[in-house]
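Ex. 9. Protein: SAC3/GANP/THP3 conserved domain-containing protein.
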Amino acid sequence: MSSYFEFFCQNLACKSTQNADRILGTCYSMCPEDEVKLREAERLVHVLEVWGSERKLVKSYSRSAADSNMAVPHLLRPYSVLVNTVQYLLLDITRRVDVPESVMYDFVNDRLRAVRQDITIQRLHPTQCVDLLEPMIRFYVYYGYVLSGHPLKDYDPVLNKKYLLECLKWYLSCCDIIAKEEGHIDKLSDFFSSLDLNTRGKTKTKLVNDQVLLESLYILCNPDDLHPLYRYLKMAKDLKGQEKLKLSYEIAIANLQGNYVKVCRLSEKLCPLLYCAISTYLPILQRRALNVMCSAYNNKRLTVPSAALVRWLGFSTDRDASTACSHYGLQVNDNMVRFDKTDFKTDARLHIPVIRNIRKKFEVSLIDIFTYETCK
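Predicted structure tokens for SAC3/GANP/THP3 conserved domain-containing protein:
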């Protein structure tokens, strides 16, 4: 089955008949009544859909079958309901602490896929798509880093990267369409910026649509890919000149040049989500850098202190640096590493370092992760 992004692009070719064929959803709750009855009867209500004595069901994702018709108005949620659903999932459900993070991630991911399914079937306008996709991308970036140390049975990084790139490319494609229609790309939508959300704590929180952040994420989520860099070079001057976007471009160029120390040094200037994006890539960078150092510092007697590796390659502590070196076959004694190119294990699995507490490092809350703006 093709991705939602591919389906969206295919429908652009038949834009002239799109409005006539559009299906408008008439389900004004987060879960269609038919699904609510079925899941309650079959006892398929998720623990995260229960708040004390109250049940708050959210439409789950279901694959389309050959004999089923999913384009039924009363089963589809209109744009306003999809907005409320995304808000609820990211600003309420993610704060639940009564289940493991991996369980919460699986639940939210499934419900976000159902949102994207409703977007695709209804063929929502690009201005509406970007508002819905932007917070989803934040979700996949943040939890892609937070859960990166979890076992495969609890979290699949390959699937997370697939969903992340699908949403990113879809978002950027919508940006390009809006730019052509309106003749500018400075401001895609003011909807999220003006939207007040009453959370469970009765405090007002705003979801935002930050194109600069998303363009930067496209670069740092694909540091080995040239296409994001080509896109950057073709951007309008006002967008290209944004500080965080320029910094992301510099980091990607330094990575392609093999200047791994510069990548780690510049990464300390990034905002929380951009830091999550590059940190997810950090284990690959560290392995490459250590392999290069085995040739540059190849010596039977001389050693390099692990404290230097912490400064150069972004390890959290001397112990983390020593553990990574030992993992790749290098000899470590009293936090002193001996680099010998004959010792390096090129076939060793990727070493995942200890995950840093992003919220503590940047002094931000989980809600801040989904709502901050790079320009402020």
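Check your answer against this statement. The chain is about 55% helix and 5% strand.
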